[in-house]
Design brief:
Blueprint: H1 2-21, E1 23-30, E2 33-34, E3 37-38, E4 44-45, E5 52-60, E6 65-73, E7 76-85, E8 89-97, E9 106-113, E10 118-126
Parallel strand pairs: 4-10
Antiparallel strand pairs: 1-5, 2-3, 5-8, 6-7, 6-9, 9-10
């Protein structure tokens, strides 16, 4: 009986330690992603810009979980994409065409887990 209790206690402590280390270590809006790395970090998006806006995130210690990029335009969810995290360091990105936005829009991307918990969030103003 004592062995079972100790084993359960060890598993509980291990799970808590794993959860404490899990994080989104880097995250940014960018104009492009090359070799799984953002080429820049956008603070605003010009309406005249053609192409797409990207959102990059690096996930640490979230292996065997699913996270999502939840894109919002003026607080309304307009796009969501799920990522199955398959390693202790996992880089993911998503994008939307710039033409979906007009001057004055506020773009937000929330990185959320399967419970809907927001792990991190970034906002980009459209000028």
């Amino acid at each position: 009986m004592r062995t079972v209790i100790l084993a359960l206690l060890f598993m509980f402590v291990s799970v808590c330690a794993f959860a404490a280390d899990a994080e989104v270590s880097r995250h940014t809006f960018t104009s492009a992603v090359v070799d799984r790395e953002p080429v820049d970090s956008l603070k605003t998006l010009a309406v005249s810009e053609e192409g797409a806006v990207f959102y990059f995130s690096e996930l640490r210690n979230l292996e065997n979980t699913t996270v999502a990029h939840q894109w919002k335009k003026n607080s309304d969810v307009v796009y969501e994409i799920n990522f199955d995290v398959k390693g202790p360091r996992w880089r993911v990105f998503s994008s939307m065409k710039s033409g979906h936005f007009v001057s004055g829009d506020i773009i937000t991307v929330d990185v959320v887990d399967t419970d809907g918990t927001v792990l991190t969030s970034d906002t980009l103003n459209v000028k």
